[in-house]
Amino acid sequence: MAKILIIEDEAAIRRVLGKILREESNNYKVTEAEDGLEGLELLKNEDYDLVLCDIKMPKMDGVEVLEAVKKIKPEIPMVMISGHGDLDTAVNTMRLGAFDYISKPPDLNRLLNTVRIALDRKELVVENKRLKKKVSKNYEMIGDSNEISQIKDMIEKVAPTDARVLITGPNGTGKELVAHWLHQKSGRSNGPMIEVNCAAIPSELIESELFGHVKGAFTSAVKDRAGKFEAANGGTIFLDEIGDMSLAAQAKVLRALQENKIQRVGNDKDIKVDVRIVAATNKNLKKEIAEGNFREDLYHRLAVILIKVPSLNDRREDIPMLIDYFSKKISGEQGTGQKTFSPKAISLLQAYDWTGNIRELRNVVERLIILGGETVSEEDVKSFASK
Predict the structure, then answer these.
(1) Do 2-123 and 312-384 show the same overall fold?
(2) Biggest CA pair distance of the chain
(3) Where exactly are the structural domains of the chain?
(4) How far apart are CA 84 and CA 104, in angstroms?
(5) Angle formed by the axes of helices 175-184 and 108-138, to 10°?
(6) Between 366 and 335, the higher pLDDT residue
(7) Which of 7, 45, 87, 372 sees the fewest Cβ atoms within 10 Å?
(8) What is the tens place of the pLDDT at every residue in 216-239?
């Protein structure tokens, strides 16, 4: 149930807003506060999904409430309520971090659309933060080979900038790790990082997924919906397997790069976005360009910085470290004691042809931990790690 707080000193408007929201959905739990001080006290003691806040109020005005909320709970979207003479102030609140503003008397459709969009955005931001806590532990780059050291050095130089990065390499090499490191070491690390697997989304849905849509844009569009670019505003969007994106979607991504603007499917209204784009592919994009499958102008926009992630076969010296890392991680996940690997077992694994790269190595290590002896032996590897 979405919890909405209305901070409004005019009792009549407060009651109207509350009535509209309660009648709109049984999933809205609405709380009312008659001034900024009361509203801020409620916000300090309880979590809300959205705040509607008047600008001109006694004791504490809406701008002061907005500034206070952005310090203590910056993830809560705030929609400011402005009187006719408050429009300049309302616009200024957008610069201070307000999600949007609505004028008095409130237009019903605009109010409800703004509430839905703000709640969608809040849900995406919260989910991203939840995932990000896992990311910091799960997305580690293991290895000290020359190839991996060069990538780490490149990340240190590139991450603090807003330069667009194209990450290439075979499947299973860890291109997403590089993307997460770029984000976490950037000035956008406190903002969202939104991942989009372009290969996993049907071509007819990719534009809606990226740019959002308005109600009625297509058969299943039952309500307005923000896209991934809007969700990534102020942060990073990671377009994985971008080589599988349709040409139509490529054209819209190119416009977003050129103008920092997007349009939702079914609407011609421009929405400004501030997003850093990191893309990845396992395809040879220059070959795709020659075959007419990928836009050359988009390639040059994306490939400001190129980072090539090597295959596991090209960094075999990292395999012992990776085996130790996966052994600890998998044993911890399964609640068992960590198993060791004999030197001969490790040597045999180093000699394998890892066509599935690090992803395949992890699966093999897990299999050996489950099926192998207390110390995983060369015989265990021959028995259980065969292709």
Answers:
(1) no
(2) 81
(3) 2-123, 139-308, 312-384
(4) 7
(5) 110
(6) 366
(7) 45
(8) 888 778 888 889 999 999 999 999
